Amino acid sequence: MDTLLIKNVLLDGKSVDIYIEGKYIKEIGINKDREANRIIDASNKALIPGFVNGHTHAAMTLFRGFADDMPLTPWLKDKIWPNEAKMTQNDIYWGSKLACLEMIKSGTTTFLDMYPKIKATATAVKEMGLRAVLSGVCFDHFNSQLTEQCKIECERTFRLSEDFCDRITFALGPHAIYTVSGTLLKWLDKFSQENNLLIHLHLAETEEERENALQQFGYTPVRYLYQLGVLSPRLVIAHGLFIDSDEIKMLADYGVKVVHNPASNMKLGSGAEFRFIEMKENGVNVLLGTDGCASSNNLDMIEAMKLASLLGKAWRKNPEAVTAEEIFAAATANGASALRLKAGKIAPGYLADLCLVDLKQAAFTPNFNFISNIVYAANGSCIDTVICNGKILMENRHVPGEEEILENASRIAYNLVTR
Amino acid sequence: MDTLLIKNVLLDGKSVDIYIEGKYIKEIGINKDREANRIIDASNKALIPGFVNGHTHAAMTLFRGFADDMPLTPWLKDKIWPNEAKMTQNDIYWGSKLACLEMIKSGTTTFLDMYPKIKATATAVKEMGLRAVLSGVCFDHFNSQLTEQCKIECERTFRLSEDFCDRITFALGPHAIYTVSGTLLKWLDKFSQENNLLIHLHLAETEEERENALQQFGYTPVRYLYQLGVLSPRLVIAHGLFIDSDEIKMLADYGVKVVHNPASNMKLGSGAEFRFIEMKENGVNVLLGTDGCASSNNLDMIEAMKLASLLGKAWRKNPEAVTAEEIFAAATANGASALRLKAGKIAPGYLADLCLVDLKQAAFTPNFNFISNIVYAANGSCIDTVICNGKILMENRHVPGEEEILENASRIAYNLVTR
């Protein structure tokens, strides 16, 4: 079995050695004079769990900077959707490779994705060494013929996913309540229960969605799901803005997970109203995500932590809202637990999904409070080394093959939007 | 005279050569086969003006991460002020060295500072090669004896500043309207007029300040300055939140400059209400700043651009508010013009205060829109080379002496807060 010893690394303010056997952390101690296949001297570096990006659309890196500063509807209808419709497996593969590269470079080891043609994304994830929960995406647009097609497609993709590598889990991906019928949502809930799958759904992203749900279904978004009977601990909702106190209680009661995506919510003008404090008080598991690069423009979870904390404080006019420790947990341990991984913490028996942070830079000088510095002062470039599943994916900020990925993804993106 | 030729650099989408003579850009063209003391091949790099940080307190890098997630009053009274009171010239020198290093690393070539003991900051700026407008800071706390002391101190510092290097300009630094009397503000305005100096003032940072001004003076902050007769094109106000439409017109009429500090306003819970759109419509020159590291935690102007744009969009629920181009101008050309520098643009005759951006990274892949990518996808680590006043301050991300600065600043910071 592969073994790795990380020596002299700063963990919770102490210098320790970490011994990794296979994909797990085996021992943490001082002066572990273990033999190992590989020894890293991590002096002047701190150890953190790899980040868990709770919501993204990896292949949308290809649309980075393609259309910004536009109202939502023309942005989607004129820019994003027509180009997404043209995407081949090869486009999605290279977009996902670029996303994986970017995530590794900024310390993410696991992500929850939603995108069609998941085999292409799975191939990219397998090659790049990350961990992922991949949901396809389904829409039936309230058309019963499409509902049946979606069911067949979900079953097909689920079977297909059995061949994916062991770092990849399949999830169901109903797009949103305004594109997926209640009938299909109920079928997906049953299918997810039978097969113990997560369901990944956009919910309560805009005020308009809330107003429309009230008009169309007679219920606000969370109440609508409650009434359908599809709230469950298997459900992970992305966004969750504009949710009232009773809806937060429903999410808590049913163990639904919520992914906050501050960059996307801000950039699309959706709003600042993510009720972090009330979710925390009610025991809702809040994750952090970047959303896809078409709206957030990057996949940097360190930036997302600062955005989430600062947005929460600004909206509430309260500097105590969303502390550095709370948002760091959202970006690591909360994400891992929601995705049912023994990861997100540094302890024996946990998956060796880890990052070394380079402390020899201004962002960590002085270093009165490491968590404050990583959340508020640093950015993704502070990540020096990334380990996932016990394997080194980046060392000294170099990822094998990165030049080729940048060149190919760039070419693929231009070809896509111009063809 | 020193000459520098930057070859094959991307400027406005074209590959050009830039010839720099002494401290100025002399020529921009294609295949300039000029001889030069130094030639840089900038293939795969883009050229931007160096950023102008419109409001900071450089030496406060020493308080990075020292106290976060706290209410404003105990944060200031228990954490910041007692430690600031202990600061020596040597502390301020090393804090400013660290700030200069951090600014160079993230592409800032000029900053407007407010801090006591400006000689120490001036020495750091001189050594590090940056450009700065340094205001001291004065408080008379409405005490007429202190008013007289402040006047003497301002005159003394102004004379002292004549010995600073030619990259440094002196400005007057009344702290705020709640710490500086109207009598002193009027004297400072007169002194600034006689000596053609800028005045750097915190104004309208919190709702509380606005309410208190109404109570204490009978006027909102901008109206109070108007009534004192101290609104002028020499005035640069930091923050400028909670300003009504008539106050924006007053700022426009008198040519007052306003510095938006999104990170600080968000982190301290001051609020999101920076009226960027109305200021733009009324022709107010808006700059961008980070504020000091005690509240913003870093000095990264690229992060500040994203924060300002995203905060503006989230607050207004309008994805068209604060575009990438607008905030890029705020962070470059607007700052230079407010600080009366022929900089912030890349054209012959302008100061050679420039940065090379490394395009071989995920943030610039694909590169459909360079300004979008630098504002929304990148962070300070994309800056490869920094030139100020025609001199190279950083190349390949290395600043001479950086290790020593990090070590000394770290030691000085710990000694300061523990003595």
Biggest β-sheet description of chain A = 4 strands, mixed
Number of domains of chain A: 2
- Number of DSSP E strands of chain A: 16
Percent of residues of chain A in beta strands?
Answer: 15-25%
- Decide which structural class fits the backbone of chain A: alpha/beta
User: What is the fourth-level CATH superfamily of the largest domain in chain A?
Assistant: Metal-dependent hydrolases
- How many H/I helical runs of chain A? 16
Helical residue percent band of chain A: 40-55%
Oligomer: homodimer
Instruction: Compute the average pLDDT of chain A.
Output: 97
Distance between the termini of chain A: 48 Å
Tertiary shape of chain A: globular
How are strands sequenced across the largest beta sheet of chain A? 3-2-1-4
- CATH-level-2 architecture of the largest domain in chain A: Alpha-Beta Barrel
Walk me through what this model shows:
Two copies of one chain form a homodimer. Chain A has 419 residues and is α/β, with parallel strands linked by helices. Chain A folds into two domains: 3-49 and 350-402, Urease, subunit C, domain 1; 51-338, TIM Barrel. In chain A, 41% of the residues lie in helices and 21% in strands. Chain A is built from 16 helices and 16 strands. Chain A has helices spanning 72-85, 89-105, 118-128, 144-161, 182-195, 207-217, 221-228, 245-253, 262-267, 276-281, 293-296, 301-316, 324-331, 333-338, 370-377, 402-418; strands spanning 3-11, 14-21, 24-29, 38-41, 45-49, 51-56, 108-114, 131-135, 168-171, 199-203, 235-239, 257-260, 286-288, 354-358, 383-388, 391-394. Chain A has a four-stranded mixed beta sheet, with no helix packed on it. A four-stranded antiparallel beta sheet of chain A has the order 5-14-15-16, with no helix packed on it. Chain A has a four-stranded parallel beta sheet with strand order 6-7-8-9. The N and C termini of chain A lie far apart (48 Å). At the A-B interface, helix 2, helix 9, helix 12, helix 15 and helix 16 of A face helix 2, helix 9, helix 12, helix 15 and helix 16 of B.
